[in-house]
Specification:
Structural class: alpha/beta
Bound molecules: alpha-L-arabinofuranose
Largest sheet: 6 strands, parallel
Number of domains: 2
Number of strands: 14
Distance between the termini: 38 Å
Shape: elongated
Strand content: 15-25%
CATH topology of the largest domain: Rossmann fold
Helix content: 40-55%
Radius of gyration: 21 Å
Strand order of the largest sheet: 4-3-5-6-7-13
Length: about 325
């Protein structure tokens, strides 16, 4: 069964890439595209959330032939081993750049040694990795997840204060993202740092909803069966918050009122949920990395230096701002 699954995954990656392979023609020494295009292999995490779909679209809209690129896209289906297979495939295809949004932080050393040996620059985007040798990648661009977690905690402290609940016992549950992914690690750590300043906040439980709406709903249903006094849900992305909202409504409670819902990403549907009164705040995580990565590639093409770590600016969007700002949201 495992072998069948693996073959299936490989054939999906191969099918995704096959049209691009057909564009290639062999010259005497190397492969090149008919037009002088820069070939970029993007190893995406999956399609687990609205954020992820906006991120993929950002790359598709940026890395077009009109802009001088050939984009090869591999969907890792939220599995690190699929992403490693895709990187190996891109090495075989001798792409010009590999862009990697790593599923989790660990497990990359071996495959990045292979990209280094092949002389293919790797640009990390969105999530970060832990490696002993940071020359294995050129640079990283993405959001500051730990800051996002702190922003969420500080917003909650301020909100409780305004409600006159600053000294109450506050029972919290957390729907975590994919365990070991940098948004999960950073948001959990950042929120915990603020929580340490509030001894009356109690974390009843934390479980992974894997960044998906369906799993978020399932985990929230479990929390509601076990605890009858939940004050706050921290959902480590909007889609898990949407699942939690459905579970809370099904339990006969009013999300956003009976239970405060805090989430991350600030996708358009989160603004709709805030306008409906179901979600209290969404801390932004900006997915529009396509143009940022293109800028990095252009600099590298010109032989310029790039900053190793590049954080993007992100905001905090409480429910009371949602109606005014929804029209301005680009994703
Ligand atoms: O890595 C970014 C996170 O991954 C986003 O918060 C989430 O929605 C996505 O799946």
């Amino acid at each position: 069964m495992k072998i069948v699954k693996r073959l299936l995954t490989l054939s999906i990656i191969a099918a995704m890439l096959i049209s691009c392979m057909a564009c290639k023609k062999k010259t005497q020494e190397s492969y090149s595209y008919e037009k002088d295009l820069i070939v970029v292999g993007y190893v995406q995490v999956g399609a687990e959330s609205d954020w992820r779909r906006a991120n993929t679209l950002s790359f598709e809209n940026t890395f077009t032939e009109e802009n001088g690129y050939k984009l090869l896209l591999a969907d890792g289906q939220q599995k690190t081993e699929n992403q490693i297979e895709a990187i190996r495939y891109f090495i075989q295809q001798d792409v010009d750049y590999i862009v990697l949004a790593p599923n989790v932080e660990t497990g990359w050393e071996g495959i990045l040694m292979e990209t280094k040996e092949a002389g293919i620059p790797v640009i990390l985007t969105d999530r970060q990795i832990k490696v002993s040798d940071d020359s294995l990648y050129v640079c990283w661009v993405g959001g500051n997840f730990e800051k996002e977690g702190k922003d969420a905690g500080r917003w909650l402290a301020d909100y409780l204060e305004k409600q006159g609940r600053a000294d109450e016992i506050i029972n919290i549950v957390t729907l975590q993202g994919t365990i070991g992914s940098s948004p999960q690690v950073g948001r959990t750590r950042g929120f915990a740092a603020v929580m340490a300043e509030h001894p009356n906040w109690r974390m009843l439980d934390m479980q992974s909803g894997e960044f998906t709406q369906s799993k978020g709903q399932e985990v929230m249903e479990g929390f509601l069966k076990r605890f009858d006094d939940i004050d706050v849900v921290i959902a480590e992305n909007d889609n898990m918050a949407f699942g939690a909202i459905d579970a809370i409504k099904a339990a006969g409670l009013d999300p956003g009122d009976d239970i405060i819902i805090v989430s991350f990403d600030a996708v358009r549907a989160a603004f709709e949920a805030m306008i409906a009164g179901d979600l209290n705040v969404s801390v932004e995580c900006n997915p529009l990395h396509g143009p940022r990565v293109a800028e990095i590639i252009q600099r590298l093409e010109r032989g310029e230096e790039v900053d190793k770590i590049q954080y993007v600016d992100e905001g905090i969007f409480p429910a009371e701002t949602a109606a005014e700002l929804i029209g301005t949201r680009p994703y």
